[in-house]
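User: Design a sequence. Structure:
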């Protein structure tokens, strides 16, 4: 069986190292140090060593002090070799005797600052590496690292072009960042079982990531070879689409602005006539000299509104196109599904890899942008006699216990939740309900409808007793 966990952790280390490097590069550039104190390879080496050390020493059984001393010794060796690559005088080098050069005066004041900055960076990176091992699931960590990294890298590039104004080494890492993130998040979702259907996953992941990175590389090559000429055609097509939408919106906006200005000028003319007793047209009729100023001012306001709407409209059109593609792909995927049961979570190898990949890309969006997405707490196979009823019975048991004050913990297995349910529903057949649920969920073994009805009746009686006890 492929070691998908190792691949996921490797991707996580690469993603973390790149966005941490971008932060260090910006700080170093703002301090006038020429960029990050450590090259990206050294940053990745520190994080990888820290993760491996935490994994190895975390499983060692023995005296705590001895384990801590061993881990500190490993950290000292990693720190020493990583700091040998500290960039002094804006060059990447490997100086094994860097402590002698630092304290012997070979580096000077700027070099000492660079080394001290490197030491602080190494400490932060090692501490971060320890946290990567003890935090939650690798899939969740990869998703969070991807979102944080995208934001930090975008800000870092803005600082590079707007404030620092020289290359600090972030741009060449964009493709590795996105490639590692997409591969890692996809691999982390693969069920950890050896089945024939698993063979489709590497193909789907490879094709999807290759297409995304290939398009990015193609755009980068065109831009690097021809400047903005290579991508100008795509930009012009998109600009023409935005202009067409704005052209349609211009007429209702201009009509509204003209009506508003006509109303304002008419009210002003009434006020001026009362003060100066100037002759005016009959009420309800606009003077000829009122129309031109209103049209002129409304045109100015309309032009301003159109330009202000250009970028927001472009973003909305991009989001709309993205959701249309997601919807079309989901429709396509639904046609090739063999049964509705494959809509359940991918706990087995027969899940549809293409549908999972579509959901993966959609999950890259923040929650508030996922229109049409409903947060469903419970999922169960429908129209399966003896199985669907057991799922609903078990979920109703949890719901009754929650109403009585139980805190639902999703991380618990059904067997681990038996004691908690029993404490809130002492008279309910919790053990039998849980056993039937395990058979239905993990073994597809149905229960008889008579047995389910008997269990539900006993549950309702137990709920009534618990409520009476709770209210007394």
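Assistant: Done.
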């Amino acid at each position: 069986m492929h070691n998908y966990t190792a691949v996921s952790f490797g991707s996580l280390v690469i993603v973390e190292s790149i966005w941490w490097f971008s932060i260090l590069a910006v700080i170093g550039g703002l301090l006038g140090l020429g960029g990050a104190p450590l090259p990206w390879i050294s940053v990745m080496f520190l994080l990888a060593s820290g993760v491996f050390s935490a994994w190895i020493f975390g499983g060692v059984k023995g005296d705590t002090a001895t384990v801590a001393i061993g881990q500190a010794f490993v950290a000292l060796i990693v720190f020493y070799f990583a700091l040998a690559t500290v960039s002094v005088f804006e060059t990447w080098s490997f100086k094994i005797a860097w402590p002698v050069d630092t304290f012997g005066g070979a580096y000077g004041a700027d070099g000492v600052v660079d080394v001290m900055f490197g030491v602080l960076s190494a400490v932060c990176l090692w501490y971060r590496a320890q946290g990567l091992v003890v935090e939650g699931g690798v899939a969740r960590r990869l998703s969070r690292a991807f979102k944080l990294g995208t934001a930090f890298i975008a800000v870092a590039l803005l600082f590079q072009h707007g404030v620092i104004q020289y290359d600090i080494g972030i741009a060449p890492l964009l493709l590795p960042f996105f490639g590692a993130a997409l591969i890692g998040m996809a691999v982390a979702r693969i069920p950890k079982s050896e089945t024939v259907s698993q063979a489709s996953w590497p193909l789907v992941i490879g094709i999807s990531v290759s297409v995304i990175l290939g398009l990015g590389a193609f755009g980068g090559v065109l831009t690097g070879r021809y400047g903005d000429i290579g991508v100008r055609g795509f930009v012009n097509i998109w600009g023409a689409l935005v202009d067409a939408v704005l052209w349609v919106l211009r007429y209702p906006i201009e009509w509204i602005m003209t009506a508003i200005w006509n109303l304002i000028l008419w009210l002003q003319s009434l006020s001026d006539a009362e003060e100066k007793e100037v002759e005016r047209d009959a009420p309800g009729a606009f003077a000829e000299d009122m129309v031109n100023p209103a049209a002129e001012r409304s045109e100015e306001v309309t032009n301003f509104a159109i330009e202000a709407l250009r970028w927001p409209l472009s973003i909305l059109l991009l989001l709309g196109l993205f959701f249309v593609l997601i919807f079309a792909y989901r429709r396509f995927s639904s046609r090739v599904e063999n049964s509705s049961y494959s809509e359940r979570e991918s706990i087995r190898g027969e899940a549809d890899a293409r549908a999972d990949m579509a959901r993966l890309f959609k999950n890259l969006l923040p929650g508030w942008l996922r229109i049409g997405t409903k947060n469903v707490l419970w999922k169960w196979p429908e129209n399966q006699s003896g199985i669907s009823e057991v799922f609903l019975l078990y979920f109703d048991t949890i719901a009754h216990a929650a109403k009585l004050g139980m805190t639902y913990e999703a991380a618990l297995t059904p067997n681990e939740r038996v004691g908690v349910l029993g404490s809130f529903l002492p008279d309910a057949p919790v053990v039998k309900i849980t056993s039937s649920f395990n058979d239905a969920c993990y073994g597809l073994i149905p229960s008889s409808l008579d047995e389910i009805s008997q269990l539900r009746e006993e549950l309702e009686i137990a709920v009534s007793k618990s409520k009476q006890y709770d209210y007394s």
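The chain is about 70% helix and 0% strand. The first helix runs from residue 4 to 30.
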